[in-house]
């Protein structure tokens, strides 16, 4: 059950990898703030996905800070902290069953392990020891996976920053008349920004 809990906790970190910012409707205040957008876009273009990935690989969360996603840093360290907690817990359990098994199979009659009244046979202790070792290995893998995933997330998120998802995009569907048959051309065109108090539809009308 412990490894299932770890996978569930890891899912809370994977979900933000595919999250995107929603689009808001244009307003007069946003139109007035358009003068600051070119500078912001230049700063975004200066960001390197490779650099973001390296930052997060060296120090978890550094790439998220580099991308301006500071709110993701607690998620990164919560996932790493959870994995580290399970590493310590499962490692402690493994050592307990390992030492108990070594005591149970020795030939000294005056030594007793802590599970003498709970697990009657040495094979039973060995089974619990192997199970604890498996959980410990899964915990180490989870920790490394979260560390690597935080670097991948920073890399992908920095790439997404370069996509233009503003309201200035329009979709143009046209059927060329020069060729027989049916075909559809898809093209994205920039729609000019309206003046204050005037709205332009998705097809420039």
Brief digest:
The chain has helices spanning 2-14, 28-32, 37-45, 49-58, 62-66, 73-105, 122-161; strands at 169-174, 185-190. The protein is mainly alpha-helical.
Notes on the protein architecture:
Helices cover 56% and strands 6% of the residues. With 205 residues, it is mainly alpha-helical. The chain has two domains: 2-16 and 44-163, no CATH class; 166-205, no CATH class. A two-stranded antiparallel ribbon has the order 1-2.
Between the first and last Cα atoms, what is the distance in angstroms?
Answer: 59 Å
H and E order: HHHHHHHEE
Strand content: 5-15%
Percentage of residues assigned to helices: 55-70%
The count of β-strands is 2
- What kind of sheet is the major sheet? 2 strands, antiparallel
Name the poorly predicted regions: 14-33
Total of DSSP H or I helical runs spanning 4+ residues: 7
From the alpha carbons, calculate the radius of gyration and give it in angstroms: 29 Å
Mean pLDDT: 74
Strand order of the largest sheet: 1-2
Which structural class best describes the helix and strand composition? Answer: mainly alpha
- Which descriptor suits the 3D outline? rod-shaped
Tell me the count of domains: 2
């Amino acid at each position: 059950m412990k490894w299932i809990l770890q996978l569930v906790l890891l899912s809370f970190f994977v979900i933000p990898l595919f999250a995107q910012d929603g689009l808001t409707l244009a307003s007069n205040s946003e139109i007035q703030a358009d003068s600051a957008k070119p500078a912001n876009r230049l700063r975004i273009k200066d960001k390197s996905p490779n650099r973001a990935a390296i930052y997060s690989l060296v120090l978890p969360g550094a790439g998220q800070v580099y991308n301006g996603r500071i709110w993701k840093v607690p998620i990164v360290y919560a996932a790493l902290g959870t994995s580290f907690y399970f590493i310590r817990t499962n490692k402690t359990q493994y050592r307990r069953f390992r030492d108990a098994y070594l005591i149970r199979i020795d030939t000294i009659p005056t030594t007793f392990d802590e599970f003498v009244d709970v697990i009657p046979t040495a094979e039973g202790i060995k089974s619990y020891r192997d199970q604890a070792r498996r959980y410990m290995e899964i915990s180490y893998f989870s920790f490394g996976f979260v560390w690597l995933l935080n670097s991948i997330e920073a890399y992908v998120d920095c790439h997404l920053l370069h996509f233009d998802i503003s309201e200035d995009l329009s979709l143009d569907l046209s059927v060329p008349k020069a060729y027989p048959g049916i075909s559809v051309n898809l093209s994205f065109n920039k729609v000019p920004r309206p003046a204050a108090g005037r709205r332009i539809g998705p097809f420039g009308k």
